Fold each of these.
Amino acid sequence: MPLKILVLNGSTRAKSTNGLFIEAIIRLAGDRAQFTVFSSVAELPHFNPDVDIDPAPPEVARFRKQLREADGLLICTPEYAMGVPGSLKNALDWTVSTADLRLKPIMLVTASLSGEKAQRSLLETLTVLEGKLTPETTVLVQFARTKVDAEANVTDAPALADLKRALDAFL
Ligand SMILES: Cc1cc2nc3c(=O)[nH]c(=O)nc-3n(C[C@H](O)[C@H](O)[C@H](O)COP(=O)(O)O)c2cc1C
């Protein structure tokens, strides 16, 4: 059975560059893994501990179930205003009480103009959530829009090599 990977895109934009990188990564993985792109982090309600009770809001329950059933998690995200996009951080906040990221293998791709601060912040969050990620499974793609074409071909050789290396380590 191929590995089951859940994918979160930190961008909710229709023509997201991160979406193109996700497509490229799925293609690079071939038949080594089966990827499910989570419909949208924006569908999750705003995190509120008062409603983080049993039963969880339906979208949250669906998200947690998909996380639990996945062998690993691929996160691709831009940086917004020097930080992690709110929708993505919100999704991660919903995993705190259930510890669904504990020991979950994670590949983290920050594809942005700069992205350093979002990457650093995500590493702190994912570490406190005890996700399993290493420098080998963490990729920063700067000037991301210039490095992937509309058909999801990564056109920048060093970025492509980094993604391949991280994907191999992750899988
Ligand atoms: C409101 C806004 C704020 C942004 N702030 C940053 C930023 O702080 N750092 C950065 O690297 N890129 C920033 N960007 C640029 C994004 O990285 C770039 O638009 C990226 O392509 C978005 O990812 P997407 O194409 O997957 O939606 C910002 C973009 C927007 C729209």
Note: The chain has a mean pLDDT of 97.
Amino acid sequence: MPRFGRIALAGRPNAGKSSLLNAILGTHLSLVSPKAQATRLPVSGILSDADSQIVFIDLPGLLEPAYLLQTRMRQLALGGLRTADVVLFLHPAPEAPAPPLAQLIPDAPPFTADVITVYTKGDLVTAGRRQELEATGAVTSVTSQRSIDALVVRLRAGLRPGEFQFPADDLATQPMKFFVTEYLREAAFDALEDELPYAFIAEVDEYREERKPVYIRATLYVERESQKGIVIGHRGATLRKIGTHARVRLEALLGEQVYLETWVKVLPGWRRSAAALARFGFPVTADEGD
Ligand SMILES: Nc1nc2c(ncn2[C@@H]2O[C@H](COP(=O)(O)OP(=O)(O)O)[C@@H](O)[C@H]2O)c(=O)[nH]1
Ligand SMILES: [Mg+2]
């Protein structure tokens, strides 16, 4: 009998959730940034072997929302906890011990998943400290394949019987267009400073996979006219850098060449607009008045 499970990666912003997802999958699927709150929408990655399939769900970080986008991010993170069989609660080893997960989510509706504490960034503490922490939870580091493998073995062993929900060779559940916008955002987090990456979002206008190279046209949105100039940069240098970063990631994921065309536009206040957020894939929940 095959085994199947959904495992959510939860924790505070910057705990290393997306990095761990990528290390488990051996692919740079989810965007990673040293800046907090880069992940806005859950990213699912699939790990299959001969007789088991795990869908890992990389969730937005658990934080106190300051504006509507962050409210949506928190709702998505809490929703992800509800649909998981197992929750990996990630906490950086240098900041151990982890508080109880319940402390981060006093507003969460009850969920039934088992919670496993995973200390991330194990390479940033001493071997002695790692051993101490291993007594209370898993310890991983993206620089140690052994620690990633050990975690996967443990998770596979805990899976319940169930049919595969996805083809065995699928890596992701979301369409390639989604990853175009994610990698453009990763590039923005890399190339832009301060508040700008947070005011940045991307939308795919055209995706023609029948063309060789694959032709993709995307619009990059910021909130103010002054931000537009910064995203474009001197003679378009910053925009080129953003496009190249995203294109290289996409080509690695697709295994073929991509021609990525980008335009920059202003969409004032999109982070606080329910209509704009719905358009960018952040669902409006029923219990909300706006
Ligand atoms: N030293 C070290 N840094 C890590 C590790 N995992 C993640 N990071 C870094 O921590 C930062 C946040 O990682 P990210 O995966 O985006 O965190 P998320 O916000 O929880 O998804 C990035 O700069 C990563 O490179 C690790 O195992 N060791
Ligand atoms: Mg992340």
Note: The longest helix spans residues 237-254.
